[in-house]
Amino acid sequence: MTRAAFDEVIHAPNRLQICSMLAAVDAMEFPVVREALDVSDSVLSKHVTVLQAAQYASITKVRRRTWLALTAQGRQALAGHVAELRRIVERAEDGR
Q1: Using 50, 70 and 90 to split pLDDT, how confident is the model at 92?
Q2: Would you say 56 and 81 are in contact if contact means Cβ atoms under 8 Å apart?
Q3: 8-94 — its CATH code?
């Protein structure tokens, strides 16, 4: 079972979107992620570097293509972060 836990690394909006996109696939090409987020190469690179430093994402270069993937640790962290966000939202909804 995934432990609900807020994750500062994932929480930044672009990083949360990156993790969510990568969670749905085995790997995704860098330009596809960049276009989906509508950011520059440098902005995406900075966010991916943060995720990679936390061991949440991996980068693989095959010929001239760069592939991004969520690691097992990244998938677990994302699941915990999403669970915590859900818990927070449910608490807010219960207070109505």
Answers
A1: confident
A2: no
A3: 1.10.10.10
